Amino acid sequence: MVSNLTKSQLEQVLLIIEEAHKVSTAGDLRQCVVYGVGALVESSSCAWTELKSDLFTTTTATTTQVDISNKDVNVTEAALSFDQYASQHPVIARLIQKGNLDTTSISDLLTRSAFQNLELYQCFYKQLLTEDQLSTGYIENGYVTGLSVNRATWGFTQSERSLLSHVANCVFPLYKLLQRDIYSETDNRPMVGAYTNAILEHYPVLGITPREADVLALVARGKSNKHIAVAFTISEGTVKKHVENMFRRLGVNNRVSLTIKAMTTIQNTISE
Questions:
Q1: 99: left (phi over 0), alpha (psi -120 to 50) or beta
Q2: What is the pLDDT of residues 248-265, one digit of tens each?
Q3: Which of 45, 127, 169, 237 is the most exposed place for a label (fewest CB within 10 A)?
Q4: Residue 76: how many CB atoms within 10 A of its CB?
Q5: From the DSSP assignment, how many helices (H) and strands (E) are in the chain?
Q6: Is the full-model pTM beyond 0.70?
Q7: Quick one: which H or E segment has residue 148?
Q8: Are 82 and 72 in contact (CB under 8 A)?
Q9: Strand partners, 48
């Protein structure tokens, strides 16, 4: 996927991914990524947008999250304007149809004149001095999540597509994990319950102890060592020791990678 990238580009992609692994909240990850990609790919701005499922059934969308690298843009006003015409967006329409999306630009799907004739362009993108947009995204739990690069010219190179695709493929799984606590408090509690139960039920395949499985279940939900210590009436030092033991046994060096490795191992075992 990235064979056409230069060594310098690969190093920059890895830097963004490394920084994304350091954050602890979904909001921090969004900001980290939009500023990183905005600097990596020539653009007028880079945006991370999350829409509620209104777009599936109505002519307007409801933006729940938006982060944009252009500090001159009023995010609230931009979100309201975008919501009104989001259903006209050809890339979002393709994403909804497929369920997930390879890196795709507006210019892949429409002629320039056709795009400029849309109300979406006239009332939104024209105001942002955007003539084309390269995006990738996915749908999960009734939300459309997308990472986009806006440009004042028409067209994107294959190298730029590879850059965006590689970053997205690495940071989207992290974002989903960071979002799980938010969902657990709202309409997706059953999903988080199943996720935690899978760890508690199948932990032997990970080579960890029952207590470590208890700790891992909370690590997977983004809980801190302090929170876990209080939950199990143990010291933070003991929690840290459990986490470090699991790092060693699963061959990882951070909590996000630990969760991904654990769930991947469990899912592979269940599917066999």
A1: left
A2: 999 988 887 888 788 778
A3: 237
A4: 10
A5: 14, 5
A6: no
A7: strand 143-151
A8: no
A9: 67, 147
